[in-house]
Write a structure and sequence with these properties.
By secondary structure, this protein is of the alpha+beta class. Helix content is about 25%, strand content about 20%.
Length: about 230
């Protein structure tokens, strides 16, 4: 029977014990952060029924950015990848060496300022809608804050699951580079159907029910292969 091992690249030691839950980590580093952030840093593997039992994260009105460190910059907020965000980063909670990675999307002030009629602007609406979504075909919300209040927001971030395999567009480009070379190959039809069905499943969830959400950005750069824990759920 296959087993999961953790390999220490420095000592060469191999173990089945998850280093995230060592006595030292649990008694010191993890207790330095709020409970909701601590839980998001340690949930690493799916179990039967986990999606059904998942709770939507509470919306915080405290600025949480100082609790995270930036590991990688996807978009610096200069408008290169998206015109509505104030930066997109791969982050993890500070002080936890084995903490899992999340993606932080920051919002620009002009997307937070309430509209003239007092209604929430695009950035606030995106956070309020996204944190309600729980579905295997979507990157779920880990944490979100709007500071200092819904009525007068000056800063906001949305923290989502990190999909570490790039986008569907990245995959297509890699196959395209091999055309005419000795490594030329084709995307398996089975995977193409898998991606198509997954996209349709997610869009069907968004557009179903009494209160629906529409996605005007359903394209290959926005389609991300799911994290391992979701794929293992079958």
């Amino acid at each position: 029977m296959a087993r999961e091992y953790y390999y220490n690249t420095e000592t060469g030691e191999k173990t089945t014990n998850n280093p995230r839950f060592g006595k030292k980590e649990l008694e010191s580093q993890l207790l330095c952060v709020p409970r909701e952030l601590r839980e998001s840093a340690t949930v690493t593997k799916n179990a039967p029924g986990l999606l059904q039992r998942m709770k939507r994260p509470d919306l915080s009105f405290s600025n949480s950015r100082h609790r995270y460190e930036i590991v990688h910059t996807i978009d610096d907020g200069g408008g290169g990848l998206g015109g509505m965000n104030g930066g997109v980063y791969v982050v993890r909670i500070k002080g936890i060496g084995h903490c899992k990675l999340d993606v932080e999307k920051r919002f620009t002030p002009d997307t937070l300022t309430p509209l003239r009629n007092g209604e929430p602007n695009l950035g606030v609406n995106e956070i309020l809608i996204t944190r309600k979504l729980i579905h295997p075909a979507l990157a779920n919300t880990i944490h979100a804050f709007i500071y200092p209040s819904l009525e007068h927001p000056t800063a906001a971030s949305l923290y989502l699951e990190f999909c570490d395999r790039g986008s569907l567009q990245d995959l297509i480009k890699q196959y395209a580079k091999r055309i005419g070379t000795a490594e030329e190959s084709y995307i398996p039809e089975r995977f193409a159907w898998h991606a198509f069905i997954g996209l349709c499943d997610g869009l069907s969830y968004l557009m179903g029910g009494r209160s629906f959400a529409t996605d005007r950005d359903a394209r290959s750069p926005s389609a991300l292969p799911l994290p391992v824990w979701k794929r293992s759920a079958g």
